[in-house]
Automatic annotation (TrEMBL):
It holds the Pfam family ATP-synt_B. This is ATP synthase subunit b, chloroplastic. Belongs to the ATPase B chain family. PANTHER family: ATP SYNTHASE SUBUNIT B, CHLOROPLASTIC. F-type ATPases have 2 components, F(1) - the catalytic core - and F(0) - the membrane proton channel. F(1) has five subunits: alpha(3), beta(3), gamma(1), delta(1), epsilon(1). F(0) has four main subunits: a(1), b(1), b'(1) and c(10-14). The alpha and beta chains form an alternating ring which encloses part of the gamma chain. F(1) is attached to F(0) by a central stalk formed by the gamma and epsilon chains, while a peripheral stalk is formed by the delta, b and b' chains. Residues 64-98 form a coiled coil. One of its GO terms (molecular function) is proton-transporting ATP synthase activity, rotational mechanism. It comes from Dryadella lilliputiana. GO terms for cellular component: chloroplast thylakoid membrane; proton-transporting ATP synthase complex.
Length: 184
């Protein structure tokens, strides 16, 4: 350090007593300038730097507190969502179970209704067949009776001559006359 101060005080640089000169030796003056600037900065800037650091510290702490509160809120929301999810899952299981039992009930009801419908249709079919069979039998009977009557009339017409016809009519008239006398 003596060399540095000697360079400022030495006679070479201060040859005339009333003159002022700058020391242009960078290696000799730079560390001194830097130490003076740093000293001034530390002395005067210490308060400002402390204030800036304190404010930054408070912002960081505030951000951490906010983050913690947000985290707690998110955890609470997550727990509420989990509880709701469990409730929804339970309800979904109940709906699924009820839905399956309802489907089974509907299936059984549909099967029963279909069986009843098939039974009614079978009964209607049997009744229709019975009526159609009776109608066919009645039609056959009528045709047979009609043919028998036509055959009997034909046989009677061929067997009866006019004399036999007159005797039959006279006998019938006598029978009717005797019935009339009995009723009077």
């Amino acid at each position: 350090m003596k060399n540095i101060t000697d360079s400022f005080i030495s006679g070479e640089h201060w040859s005339s007593a009333g003159s002022f000169e700058f020391n242009t030796d960078i290696l000799a003056t730079n560390p001194i300038n830097l130490s003076v600037v740093l000293g001034v900065l530390i002395f005067f800037g210490k308060g400002v730097l402390n204030d800036l650091l304190d404010k930054r510290k408070q912002r960081i702490l505030s951000t951490i507190r906010n983050s913690e509160e947000l985290r707690r809120g998110a955890i609470e929301q997550l727990e509420r969502a989990r509880v709701r999810l469990r409730k929804v899952e339970i309800e979904a299981d109940e709906y699924r179970t009820n839905g399956y039992s309802e489907i089974e009930r509907e299936k059984v009801n549909l099967i029963n209704a279909t069986c009843n419908s098939l039974e009614r249709l079978e009964n209607y079919k049997n009744e229709t067949l019975f009526f159609e069979k009776q109608r066919a039998i009645n039609q056959v009977r009528q045709k047979v009776l009609q043919q028998a009557l036509q055959k009997a009339i034909g046989t009677l017409n061929s067997c009866l001559n006019s004399e036999l016809h007159f005797r039959t009519i006279s006998a019938n008239i006598d029978i009717l006359g005797s019935v009339k006398e009995i009723t009077d």
